[in-house]
Amino acid sequence: MAEWDTRESTMSVALRFGMLLLVTALTVLVLEWSFGFMRSEDAPRLLVAVVALAVGVCGIWILYWILNDWVSYIPFRRLREKILPFVFLGPALTLLFVYLVYPAVNTIYISFLDKKSDNFVGLENYQFIFTEPDILVAFRNNAVWLVLVTSVCVGLGLVVAVLVDRIKLESLAKSLVFVPVAISTVGASVIWRFMYAFQPAGRPQFGLLNAAVVALGGEPTGWFLRPPFNNLALIVIMVWLQTGFCMVVLSAAIKNVPGELLEAARIDGANELHVFFQVTVPYIRGTIITVTTTVIMAVLKVFDIVYVMTRGNYATEVIANRMFLEMYRFGHFGRGSALAVIIFLAVAPAIVINLRNLRQRSL
Amino acid sequence: MKVHDSEVDRYALRSALSGTTLRATIAIICFIWTLPTVGLFVSSFRSASAIRISGWWTAFETPFEFTQWTLENYAQVITSVGLGNALVNSLIVTIPATAIPITIAAFAAYAFAWMDFPGRELFFTIVVALTVAPIQMALIPVLRLHVASNLNGTFLGVWLAHTGFGIPMAVYLLYNFISQIPRDLIEAASIDGASHFQTFTTLVLRVSVPALASFAVFQFIWVWNDLIVALVFLGTRSSVATVTAALSELIGSRGQDWHLLTAGGFVSIILPMVVFFSLQRFFVRGILAGSVKG
Lengths: 363, 294
Known about the structure:
By secondary structure, chain A is mainly α. Chain A is about 75% helix and about 0% strand. Chain A folds into 2 domains: about 1-75; about 125-360, MetI-like (MetI-like fold), CATH 1.10.3720.10. Chain A contains 15 helices and no strands. The longest helix of chain A has about 40 residues, at about 1-40. The model of chain A is unreliable at about 1-5 (pLDDT under 50). Chain B is mainly alpha-helical. Chain B has 2 domains: about 1-70, no CATH class; about 75-285, MetI-like fold. Chain B is about 75% helix and about 0% strand. Mean pLDDT of chain B is about 85; it is low at about 1-5. The chains are: A mainly alpha, B mainly alpha. At the A-B interface, helix 1, helix 2, helix 3, helix 5 and helix 6 of A face helix 1, helix 2, helix 4, helix 5 and helix 6 of B.
C-alpha cells in the first residue's frame, strides 16, 4: 500500500513536471510571438496594447511562476535557497543594468569619442563645451534657474504651508496650489504661452499679462524675445509647477512639529515670527533639505519648458535642452554625452547624500 | 487692570487683523495659481475669432450668452488635428508602462526585504544610487540599443525604457513599505509551509495595496506627462506620438492658433487631473515617500 503511494506520487511528480515543461514551452512560444507582434509596424495599435497588457502583467506573472517552479525541482535545499532570490530579482536587475548601469558607463565612454563615436578625441568635447559661447550661456542660465526656482519654490512653499495650517479651508487651498504638480510641462507651457501672448501695440491683447501692462498704460512686450526677461518668464513656469510639491511635503513636516514645543515658545513670549524661525524651521530642517535637493535636481534636468517655449533661442538655452539638441539636431553624440556627464556630475552629490542616509539606516 | 484690558483688546484686534490678512494672502496666492488654468479652460470653449478679438476674462461679462461658447475647438483638435489619436497612443504607452514596473519592482522589493543572498547590499546600493540618476545619462546608449534591436519607434521599446528608468524608484518605494511588514507575519506564513512565492502573492501583495496604489498613481502621471522619453524613443509620427509630443509639435507648427492650442492643452491635462483629484491621497503619499524621484 505504502509502495503504491510512493509510486503514485512519483507519477504525479512526473506529471507535474511534464506540465511544467509544456507550460514553459508554450510561454516561450507565446512570448516570442508577442514580442514580434508588438514590434511590428502594421499591427493595429489597440491590439498591440491589449497584447502588451496581457504579456506585461499576466505574462510576467507566469514567467515568475514558471521560474519559481523550476527552482522548486532543484533537489538541494541550500542551492534552491541560493537561486530563488535571483528569480525574484532577475527581471529588475536585468532592466536596471540594460537601461541604466550600462548606458551610464557607455555615456562616459562616448563623451571621449568624436561626433559619430568613431575615434577617440580625449577631452575635446569637454573643451568645446566650456568654450562655446552658446553653451556657456546655458550654464549661466542653469545657474540662474537653480537659484531662483529653488529659493522661490522652497520659500513660497514653506510660507504657504505655514499659512494654510491656520485656516479652515486648508485642504482646498492646498489642492489649488498643488494642482500644477499633476500638469505636464507641455500642458503648462501652453497655459503660460497663452498668459504671455503678445500682439503688436494697438491690437487687442488677449494674453493676460500684456493686457494688464496695457491697462496700466504700458507698452505690450514680447516676453520671450528679450533677455533677461525671457529667462524669468520661463522660470515662472517652473515655479508654478513645483511650488505645490514643496508646499505639500513641507506641510506634512510642519504637522509633525510637537504642539508642546510651539506652546512653550509662545508662553516664553516669542511672537509668531520667532516661533516660526526658532522652533518650526529647525525642527523640519531635514525635510527642507530634502525638498531643496529634489527641486535642484528637477531644475538641473529641466528640458521640456525650454524645448517647447523657445527651443533655446534668444539666449534661453539650458544644459538639458542643449544635450537634446546636440543629440537630435546636430547628431553629435560625443558632445551630447559630455553634456549628459556634466548633468550627472551636478547631480552626483545628491546620490552621495542618499547613499550616506542609506548607510545610517542600514539594511 | 485697565492697561491689561487694552492689551488684551490690542491682541484680539491684531489677531483678527492677521486672520484677515492671512486669509487674503492665501486667497491671492490661490487665485494666482488657478488663474492661468482657468484662462486656458475658458478660452478652449470660445471661437477662434473671439479669442483673438478679446481677452478670455471679458467672456465673464456675459457668461450666459450661450452663443459665444462652442465645442468646435475640441472637435477640430481631436479629429482633424489628430490629438484623439495621440490620446490613444498615450494610453497605450502609459498603462503598460505603469503596470509592468510595479510587478517587477514588487518582486525585487520582496527579495531585498525578506530574502538573503550574496550581493544584497551592493545591489540595493546601486538601486538607491540610481533613483536620482538623470535620464540624460541613458539616452544615447539606449537609443543605439533600440535601433540595433529594431525597438526604436515601437511601443514595446518605450515600455521597456519607462520600466527600466522607473524601476529604481519603484523598488525603493515598495521596499520601504514591504520591509516594514511585521516579521511575525512573514514567519508565520513560512511556518505554515508557504514558499516565498506563496508568501509574496497571498500575503505581501495584499497588505501592500496602499504602497502599490501610490506608486501606480505616481508612475501613471509621470509617464503620461513625460516628453523626453516619448520624443527620443517613439518620435513624432502620428501613429506613435503621445499627447505631449503631439502638443509640442502643434505649438511648433500652429503656435498662433489659440483655439486649437487651448483645447489641445486641456485635452492633454484632463486625464492626469482626474486621476489626481480622485486619488489625491495616494498621489500625495507617493510624493512624500518618493520626494527624490529623478
